[in-house]
Amino acid sequence: PDGTSSTPLLTVSQYACKRRTTTVNNNKILTDALEVLAESYEFKEIPGRCLAFRRASSVLKSLPWAVRCLRDTEGLPCLGEHSKAVMEEILQSGHSFEVEKTLSDEKYQTLKLFTSVFGVGPKTAEKWYRGGLRSFSDVLAAPGIHLNRMQQSGFLHYGDISRAVSKAEARALGNLIDEAVRAVTPDAVLALTGGFRRYRGKEFGHDVDFIVTTREPGKEEKLLTGIIERLKQQVSTLFGLLLYCEYNASTFDMVKLPSHQFEAMDHFAKCFLIVRLEGGRVEGGLHGAEGDGRGWRAVRVDLVSPPMDRYAFALLGWTGSRQFERDLRRFARAERRMLLDNHTLYDKTKKEFLAATTEKDIFAHLGLEYIEPWQRNA
Ligand code: 8DG
Ligand code: MN
Ligand code: MN
């Protein structure tokens, strides 16, 4: 940093939780390419390579400037030889041979298509592919294929739930959920989490995530089942509001230590829903199903209901992004000898759990500068 080199003046951390990443991505061409490769290695079940490309992409997303040539990236962390070679090719010729090859690969395309269905993960997609299936009609016509309820709903509402959810739609859903929550108990706490908590502009999400709890200890599970009942009873024209509902009861156990695994699922009561959202509710009716004049659309909604004293951990864990969460946990473990998950923070040196009522408390325990939700789009 003598002012003559193109090295960025501020050092960029290898940890996403020490970077501020808005939704303004100055390097989208590069990050899109790296994420194709990340996804293809995810399908190939090579997690190390997948993570390497995701980390590289995440670093580029945090830059307030566009990378023009490889020299610009000197001193940046997480850019391995492979990522750099891909970037170099794109910077020089506009595209990468490996990325183009991946995008036109039949297996990649098929797994991408299958995993775009709600309820279909990489394992199922791989199984279908190995069974010779290549399209939705192949899957639906194949004898001996059993679709679970989630997958059936995924196919039934495919068009709607693969269409992005707008801010206006998220707001309309917020009102709908809020109404149900108030009807069950007036002292409930409801907050938007997930992507819509991180987006400030006119970004779109794939679903709408809410966290809901109550100040009355032990009542949070009843609250969630109450909300579900309420939504089921609420009839919109001829149909109930809930097109699909999977409820997972809490398996939360306070004595368990945070797990060492990334992406570890949490144990709070939660539900995965598909909700019928009326077009008329939203100003301008911008989400009405185009062309078919139905006036409503299906939207994916997730609700999680932690006990109040776990609220800050759950909110931090559900706000994402996934890369931000991964690095928070990695940072806690590697730099602080602490274990963090959606339930708790444990200090291995002091051998004690650290209490928190706000996200700021958790950042403070970790000795991290507070990062606002809209700066967590790592
Ligand atoms: P998007 O929906 O706008 O595309 O982005 P997102 O909101 O960041 O993605 P998401 O898939 O809705 O996940 C939101 C956060 O929730 C993410 O950081 C991961 C976290 N999460 C958990 N546990 C669970 C879980 O059991 N299921 C799901 N679907 N997400 C979970 O911490
Ligand atoms: Mn989401
Ligand atoms: Mn979600």
From TrEMBL:
What are its cofactors? Mg(2+)
Task: Output the Gene Ontology cellular-component terms.
Answer: nucleus
Keywords per UniProt: Magnesium, Metal-binding, Nucleotidyltransferase, Nucleus, Terminal addition, Transferase
Highest taxon of the lineage? Eukaryota
Localization annotation: Nucleus
Output one GO BP term.
DNA modification
What catalytic reaction does the record list?
DNA(n) + a 2'-deoxyribonucleoside 5'-triphosphate = DNA(n+1) + diphosphate
Q: What class of enzyme is it?
A: transferase
Q: Does the keyword Chloroplast apply?
A: no
Which GO terms fall under molecular function for this chain's record? DNA binding; DNA nucleotidylexotransferase activity; DNA-directed DNA polymerase activity; metal ion binding
Q: Give me the residues that bind Mg(2+), please.
A: D207, D209, D302
Q: Any idea of its EC number?
A: 2.7.7.7
Which residues span the membrane? none
Which family does the record assign? Belongs to the DNA polymerase type-X family.
Say what the protein does.
Gap-filling polymerase involved in repair of DNA double-strand breaks by non-homologous end joining (NHEJ). Template-independent DNA polymerase which catalyzes the random addition of deoxynucleoside 5'-triphosphate to the 3'-end of a DNA initiator. One of the in vivo functions of this enzyme is the addition of nucleotides at the junction (N region) of rearranged Ig heavy chain and T-cell receptor gene segments during the maturation of B- and T-cells.
Name of the protein in question: DNA-directed DNA/RNA polymerase mu
Q: Which gene carries the instructions for this protein?
A: dntt
Q: Which residues of the full protein are shown?
A: 134 to 511 of 511
